Amino acid sequence: MPATFRGVTIWFTGLPRSGKTTLSRLVAAELEALGVDRIEVLDGDVIRRTFSAGLGYSRADREENVRRIADHARELTESGTVCIVAAISPYASARARAREAVGDFVEVHCTAPVEVCAARDTTGLYAKAMAGEIESFTGVSDPYEIPEAPDLRLDTAGGDPDALAQQVVDHLALRGYLVRAADELPAA
Questions:
Q1: Contact criterion met (CB below 8 Å) for 102 and 96
Q2: What CATH number does residue 108 fall under?
Q3: Phi and psi for 54 in degrees, rounded to 5?
Q4: Which residues does the chain have with pLDDT short of 70?
Q5: Is residue 137 part of a domain?
Q6: Active site residues
Q7: 9 forms bridges with which residues in the sheet?
Q8: 188 within domain boundaries
């Protein structure tokens, strides 16, 4: 029997290369395997090239990017879709406004030290930022405000990605956004 679900936005936040995209894809695959048929993944890198093309990396532009993502996520969530967002979203105030705008919102902080994220970077952006060649690079020359009380905080530096994704799915069930066949109790 497929799982039943209701609309929610799962918002992965963290430094660049902290595992947001990897976990968002794993969670989407797990939900699909459970029979959830309304899933939309909004990846921050793709959004930057499409929906938010033209925005820079000033604080105002970063906040506008998060606002645009949140507006789209709200529409998807209200339509009954499980919306999975993977976006750095470095400022606490912008994430708080996103939570307020969306309503049904689960914030997942992917945490890994800058050194681990830099070691994962195959694009060379961290090296360029650390050499001063890139301005306003989150975690190096621009701040990342660590969430004080996310719904989940996942250590992506050493955690098994599949197990971390399962924690997110379990949290959705705990919050009532997902009911898996195994979660249903037999009638007495």
A1: no
A2: 3.40.50.300
A3: 100, -20
A4: 1-2, 181-188
A5: no
A6: 89
A7: 83, 105
A8: no
Task: Show the CA angle centred on residue 156, arms to residues 11 and 75, nearest 5°.
Answer: 10
Residues pairing with 5 in the sheet: 178
Domain that holds residue 154: 4-113+143-183
Q: What angle do CA 92, 117, 151 make, to 5 degrees?
A: 40
pTM of the predicted structure, to 2 decimals: 0.91
24/58 Cα distance (integer angstroms): 26
Per-residue pLDDT tens over the stretch 31-54: 999 989 999 999 988 888 888 888
Residue 130 lies in a domain: no
CA separation for the pair 188, 185 (Å, rounded): 9
CA distances from 98 to 136, 166, 173 (A): 22, 24, 22
Closest CA to 94 of 20, 154, 11: 11
- Give, as one character, the DSSP assignment of residue 38: -
**Rounded (10°) angle between helices 92-102 and 59-78:** 20
- DSSP character for 2? P
In a domain, 58, yes or no: yes
How many domains does the chain fold into?
Answer: 1
Q: Which residues of 166-177 are buried (b: 16+ CB within 10 A; e: fewer)?
A: eebbebbbeeeb
